[in-house]
Structure formats: structure tokens, C-alpha cells
Amino acid sequence: MSGSRLLSAASYVGSSLAMTSLTKYAASAWRFPGSSLLLLIECWATVLALGAFRAYYPLSWPILRHMPLVTVTKAVNMYLSFLAMRRTSLPVYNVLKRLQPVYAMGQDWLIRGSLPSTGEFASVILIATGTIVTGLGDLDFDVGGYALALLAAGCQSLYLVLARHAQDSGKLSSMDLVFYTAFYNSVLFIPLSMLELSAVLAFLDSPGEVSNFFQFLTPYVMLGALLNYATFWCTAETSPLATAVAGTLKGVLSSLAGMLLFGAHLTPIGWMGLIGSTIGGFLYSASRELIRATSAPSFQAAAACNFRPRWDVPAMALDEAVTSQEQAAEEVKRSLLPSYWRPKDPALDWPAPGFLHPTTGFSRTDGGGPWPN
After folding, report:
1. Is residue 278 within 8 Å of 251, Cβ to Cβ?
2. Which of 294, 311, 326 is the last residue of a domain?
3. Minimal CA–CA distance to 29: which of 86, 79, 94?
4. Domain for residue 372, yes or no?
5. Which domain holds residue 347?
6. How does it sit in the membrane (predicted)?
7. Domain check: are 278 and 325 in the same one?
8. Which one-letter DSSP state was computed for residue 256?
9. What span, in angstroms and rounded, lies between the C-alpha atoms of 67 and 185?
């Protein structure tokens, strides 16, 4: 792995781990009452950071048509995740949030008509089994905390499915979705922040809490912006699978950090469930990437020969799966020539010199003249 790829993956893991730990601190250790205010500030920071580099049009009709449900599910996911962190340990929280593919499987089938592969289905079963085993071994089992985390995971998966649908229908990029969801979520979090205002002011009246607030806010905003950038940087530099593997590593590290910093009371059975859920999450990411890799158009076929492709090359010549580079070159060669050019048959004493294609060695079979020089 090159230096830039390693740096992008490390920045994603580090910023994500720091952001998760910081949010856990605010929710359960510091017990700051303004969760909506923090989420509002995070949204504003994202809007300002992304809006500084290009123009967005949040009030245009195509955007307004596709974004309402995406916005609501994202906002509910953020809010419930913050509440769930107050009542569950970080290892358990990571396990419960990893249930997202379980929800996504059913939602993707209902909304987009997509069916899971065998690998996806098996990994989802492993994730679900690991989650149940973890719950059985959790000495701090909290029904309310588990319910909030499960609802948050469901909203997260619904957000991802709706986001993919918006990308399919509205031609939106991933960066567009990050900006527009942050923009519209800020509208939702403004009234919620106003409802928390009295509790926040009373909390800040305590000695030293104002300075604590600003000391917390500075790294919180910076980490939020860095995490958004690092996520897309890691995906662009490596692959979605590498980002998913890095996310799995982040989950393992945050579980260890949560156990050391905030405590986690799991029996050996609970830790077995956590490990099983982690393995299932990795296998799910690998299965998804394998599907993307095998279904993507094989444009490498065009590079397997020395032709400059024409715009009228049949799409099937590039899209068909081929088993070797030689077969790929053959398919492209056939698409670049008229139908009456075929490979020379060595059993025939034909064609005469000059009747072979000068680059491919293909021969003309319609009785026509030689290839023009």
C-alpha cells in the first residue's frame, strides 16, 4: 500500500475513533444535555466546510423532491445514536449499530427490489447471532438503551437505502448527499435545540462548565469536518472495501477504548458474541465489494489491445465477462472491425499477402479486396 493510501486509511480510522469516543464522553461521562445543539453545530460545520469548495443548490426542485425522507431518517439516526450512547457501553453500542445490514436487506428488497447474495445472507445471519449472544453476556443490559440503538441502526440502514435511491433517481454524488442532509438536518435541529436551551443554560451555570463547553466544542467541530473529509479520501484513494475494513478496525479499537475509558461489563459469552458480530461485519463488506467488482463493466478489455476505441463500439464487447486478457482483446478486436473480418483459418491457404488486417491478423472472408494501406 502506498504512503497516501496508508495515510488516508489511518486518518479515517483515527478521526472516526476520536469522534466516537468524544461523542460517548459528551453523552455518558460529561452528560451534556444539549445533544440537538451539538448535532446542529456539527451540521453547520459540515455545510460550511463543503460549501467553501463548490456551489450547491439546496432549494432547487430536483433536490427538494428527493431529500425529505433522506433528511428525516438521517436526523433520527443521529439523535437516537446520541441517546443510545448514554445507556450502553461502547462495545455493545458498536455491536448493535452493526445490525444495519440486517435492516438494509429487507429495506433494499422493499424499496429497490434488490435481493442479497449467499455471502451477504450468511454474513447477516452471523451478525444477528453475534448480537443476540452479546446481549446474553451483557451484565449492564438496558432494555431502553438496546431499543434506542436498534432503532438508530434501523434508521441508519433506511437512510443508506433512501440515499442510494436518491443517487439513482436524482443523479446525486456522495458529497452532494452529505451536504444536503447536513443542510436540511440543521433546519430540523434548530427547534429541537431551542427546546433544550433552558437545560443547556442551567448546565452551563455550573462552575467551569462554560470553559469546558468551548474546550469540547473546538475538537468536536474539527473532528466532524475531518471525519467527513477522511471518509471520502479513504474511499477515493483505496476502495469501498478498504474503507469498510478500516471501519471494522475502528469498531474493534473503539470497543477496546470504550472498555478502558468508560468501562464495559461483558461475560466471556458476551465477548464471543462481539467477536462474531465483528467477523460478520467484515464478511458482509467483503461480499458487497465482491458483487460490485464482478458486476462492474470490464473496461480493462479495451486496454488489452492496441486499438483506439470508436464511439460506436458495441457495449456488450466491453461489458461481457471474459476469462482472460487474450479473450478480452479478441472481443474488442471483433467489435472494431466489420462483420466480414474474421481470424485467419490456418487450415486454408488463403488469404494472399495483403489481405490480412495489418494489426490484428484477421482475414477478409467476403471475397473483397485487400486491406487499404
Report:
1. yes
2. 294
3. 86
4. no
5. 302-364
6. Multi-pass membrane protein
7. no
8. H
9. 10
Asked whether residue 288 falls in the same domain as residue 350, the answer is no
> In order along the chain (373 residues), what is the average pLDDT of each group of 10 residues?
74 82 85 90 86 84 82 88 85 77 74 74 82 78 86 82 74 79 90 93 92 90 78 64 63 74 75 81 74 58 44 39 45 46 46 47 48 43
Same domain, 307 and 282: no
Helix (H) or strand (E) holding 29: none
Which grid cell is 219?
A: 475538537
Cβ(51)–Cβ(165) under 8 Å?
no
Do 39 and 185 meet the contact criterion of CB atoms below 8 Å apart?
yes
Q: What radius of gyration, in Å, describes the C-alpha atoms of the chain? A: 27
282 and 155 within one domain: yes
| Residue 50 near residue 178, CB atoms below 8 Å | yes
| Integer Cα distance of 15 and 42 in angstroms | 14
Counting every residue written for the chain, the total comes to 373
- Classify residue 95: in a domain, yes or no: yes
Grid coordinates belonging to 36 = 440537538
Interior/surface letters 312-328, b for 16+ CB within 10 angstroms, e for the rest: eeeeebbeeebeeeeeb
Do both 140 and 225 map to the same domain? yes
Whole-number Å distance between alpha carbons of 243 and 258:
22
CA distance 62 to 70: 14
Residues 331 and 261 occupy one common structural domain = no
Shared domain for 207 and 244, answered yes or no, is yes
Say how far apart CA 81 and CA 159 lie, in whole Å.
14
Amino acid at 212: N
Pick the last residue of a domain from 268, 294, 320: 294
Residues 280, 344 within the same domain: no
Q: Which three cell numbers mark 42?
A: 456539527
Measured CA to CA, the distance from residue 247 to residue 354 in angstroms comes to: 60
**Shortest CA distance to 158 belongs to which of 203, 108, 92?**
108
Q: At a CB cut-off of 8 Å and minimum separation 6, what does 334 contact?
A: 317
Cα distances from 177 to residues 31, 143, 148, 152, 341, in angstroms, run 31, 33, 25, 19, 49
Tell me the whole-structure pTM to 2 decimals. 0.62
Distances in Å between the Cα of 328 and the Cα atoms of 233, 293, 298, 304, 356 are: 32, 17, 9, 7, 21
